[in-house]
Amino acid sequence: MRVLAGDIGGTNARLALVDVGGAATRIVEERRYPSRSAPGLGPIVRRFLDEVRSAPERACFGIAGPVVAGECRTPNLPWVVSAAALAGEIRIPGTTVINDFEALGYGVGLLGPSDLVTLQPGAPAEHGTIALIGAGTGLGQGFLVWDGNRYRVHSSEGGHVAFAARDAIEWGLRGTLLDEFGHVSYERILSGSGLARVYQYLATTGFAPEQPQVRREMEADDPAAVVTRHALAADDPLAVKALDIFASVYGEQAGSLALTVLATGGVYVAGGIAPRIVTKLRDGTFVAAFRHQGRLSDLASRIPIHVITSPDVGLLGAAACAAR
Length: 324
What we know:
Elements: E1 2-8, E2 12-19, E3 26-34, H1 41-52, E4 58-63, E5 67-68, E6 71-73, E7 80-82, H2 83-90, E8 94-99, H3 100-108, E9 116-120, E10 130-135, E11 139-146, E12 151-156, H4 168-181, H5 192-205, H6 212-220, H7 223-233, H8 237-261, E13 266-270, H9 278-281, H10 285-291, H11 297-301, E14 305-308, H12 313-323
Parallel strand pairs: 1-4, 4-8, 10-13, 13-14
Antiparallel strand pairs: 1-2, 2-3, 5-6, 6-7, 9-14, 10-11, 11-12
Helix pairs in contact: 3-12, 5-7, 5-8, 6-7, 7-8, 8-10
């Protein structure tokens, strides 16, 4: 069966025709569009269908944002996406709209060993609950629960819960962000813009001098990409410390999610940032924060942690959902 699948983030909208069924799920044709290039999802989908000259009967779009009763008000885009309205606009009656991490959940079962980097092998429980977390434009979360026959996917907006500072630097960061936003969620830190905020906060504290060259690069390029590049090269103390804080907070929140849903089946770290900083995630900072769970630290040390490196898991999961 050929379906239309979409992985819709705050930065990019990826659309693809996908063949589902048989031995494998295969992307036939794909396009990527800037999400802010249109006033809504419908015009982007119509453009894609015109370009590929196809009219599939089923479609599913995983969207970064809460989906309630088939409608999503996207937190990082000025869109309201209704499955019913979108179906009429794109002329595909069998159209479904789900949370992007729900789509990710449908795609996890399609991953192979080459799609993963393991940070902690742990001791996975058969049919144990699986947790999903991923930082990109925002911070997505979700989980899968075994119902006796198969895994059922559940979306979450846990990325918007209040950030819990753990030391003096994080309390100072939280206070600065609280003054700016009025509420400090984990997404304010665990996102591309969040990494840049951590760097900027450290610069204001005098943790280390800000290098003029790095500042110029941040003004000309994506600030998070610049911070990441210099942190991984270890040639700028502010960038190194910013990424260290980012990785530690990421690990702490992943560990908290694992305990919240009792993810004995493992935690899968997704999103656009993790594959780019996998070297940092493997240096022990992330795992140490993940395990630091007080009286349940031993349990946390037995939970597998995998980084998803495949960029297609969300598309494939949306396709699997469309074909159901």
